[in-house]
Amino acid sequence: MEFLGTTQTASYCGPKKDCGLQGPPPGGQAPVVQECYQPFHLPGYRYLNAWKPSVFYKIATTQTCPEECQGSRRPPTILPSLRSALFCRYTPRDWDRSNELQLRGAEASRLWASRLTSDSLRIMQDKDQLTRQMQEGTSRNLGQRLSDIGFWKSELCYELDRLLTENNSMDTIKRRLECAAQEVNCPLQVALECLYNREKRIGIDLVHDSVEKNLIREVDLLKCCQDQMRKLAKRVDFQMRDNRDAQHALERDIEDKSSAQCIDERCFNLRNTSDSISFYHGMEKFDGTVSVPETWAKFSNDNIRHSQNMRANSIRLREEAEHLFETLSDQMWRQFTNTNLAFNARIAEETDVKNKLQTQLAKILQEIFQAENTIMLLERAIMAKECPLKVAQTRLACRTRRPNVELCRDIPQFRLVNEVFTIDDTLQTLKLRLRETQDTLQLLVMTKSRLEHELAIKANTLCIDKEKCMRMRKTFPSTPRLVGYTCTGPCASLAPSGSPAPCGGSSSCGGAAHCGGPASCGGPAPCGGTSGLHLSRPGSCSAQVC
């Protein structure tokens, strides 16, 4: 191949220089042109030293133009199209090194392939044995897991049965509390009606007596009993909600364990020859678990413990309800008896006061009669003193007409004057006594009016306490009703008598009997005496107490 041009940094590509010998300058004064090779740079290759071969780089760096040649310029002597081919040359050393590397790589690949073949056979045997052992271990683990699920499932089912039994007992207690609170409405309405009727008392009889205090205490007690029963019923209702939450948690846990048991049984029965197996790529990377065996067992154990706590709370509430029934029924009966006794004592006091007022009224009437007679006698006495007074005054008037010295202050004159003064004083005394007697008569008349008014007040009070209040307070709910074993409708007004009693005897129940048993009616009254009319409420049966 024939080379066109030379390399850029060759020593012979520049102008010939005279090394240290300088000739005489030419005869003419022509300008001296010093030429030096200026390399031609292709676009993107301004700095050529960055890609030159090592040998060429050493030649290029050692052969440089002297300083005096820097000013000379000449056009390039090689073609630009051959520059890249001339600059991409390798040395023999590079070639030997490349062949040696290829041989070494081929030998290493052969050795690696041989070693890989023997290791692959060994790995296949080991992995086959490991796969069988892991599959057998997984089957054993699934069997143990099925045993654990069965154990916890049986424990949950047993606790669920006990919780359902307790829920039924709580529902019974709640209905008893509601019935007992509703049954208290009847005596509460009677006590309120007694208070309203006693508000119709007149005047001084509107006294805050022991009857009113006992009635207020009875109303407060009945309302307090109702509030306690209703509050306890609400607590029971809240406890039943908690029990239902625990029940739902147990049911969900049992349902989840049943589903897990079915799935694990299906997985336990899977074999390599089963038809339902398939590839599910990426499932080993997807971790959708939310618990570990410890937290899984703790979850079921917590559900059972929560259910046991709810059952313990329910048992405490039921015992509290039974104690509340016993206490409140005893308090209501005792207060009802005390109020009736206070009524009887107050009626006796009012009757005694009424009798005394009637006796005093009779005496006042007698005094009024005597005062009227005295007034009549005083008026007659006053009229009897007028004529002597007229005589004495006429005599004095006539004696004033005596002439001159005859107008003498003699003894008759003194006696007449004295007589007039005496009669006039007597008249004044009699008139004063007449006014006093008239005032006394007025006072007696007013006292009579007050006594008659007081008698009317006492009669009205007796009518209210004895006829209205005590007639309504002849019956009271029996203990079985107060503890909620029977439930009746809302109370009605007092019904007229005339129908058979629910449990024998006379009664004011209108219509058929509503008694739930012989223990809820009849019996002597706690305040003594025999029974009269009975307070009857539709749909209720009460014990005769007064």
Automatic annotation (TrEMBL):
Residues 347-381 form a coiled coil. Its main location: cytoplasm. Keywords: Cell projection, Cilium, Coiled coil, Cytoplasm, Cytoskeleton, Flagellum, Ubl conjugation. GO terms for cellular component: axonemal A tubule inner sheath; nucleus; sperm flagellum. Signal peptide: none annotated. Microtubule inner protein component of sperm flagellar doublet microtubules. Interacts with TEKT3. It is found in: Cytoplasm, Cytoskeleton, Cilium axoneme; Cytoplasm, Cytoskeleton, Flagellum axoneme. Belongs to the tektin family. GO terms for biological process: cilium assembly; flagellated sperm motility. The lineage of its organism: Eukaryota, Metazoa, Chordata, Craniata, Vertebrata. This is Tektin. Microtubule inner protein (MIP) part of the dynein-decorated doublet microtubules (DMTs) in cilia and flagellar axoneme. Forms filamentous polymers in the walls of ciliary and flagellar microtubules. Required for normal sperm mobility. Sperm-specific microtubule inner protein (MIP) part of the dynein-decorated doublet microtubules (DMTs) in flagellar axoneme. Forms an extensive interaction network in different conformations that reinforces the helix bundle composed by other tektin proteins (TEKT1 to TEKT4) and MIPs to anchor the tektin bundle onto the tubulin wall of A-tubule of the sperm flagellum. It comes from the Eukaryota. InterPro entries: Tektin-like (IPR048256), Tektins (IPR000435). It comes from Peromyscus maniculatus bairdii (Prairie deer mouse).
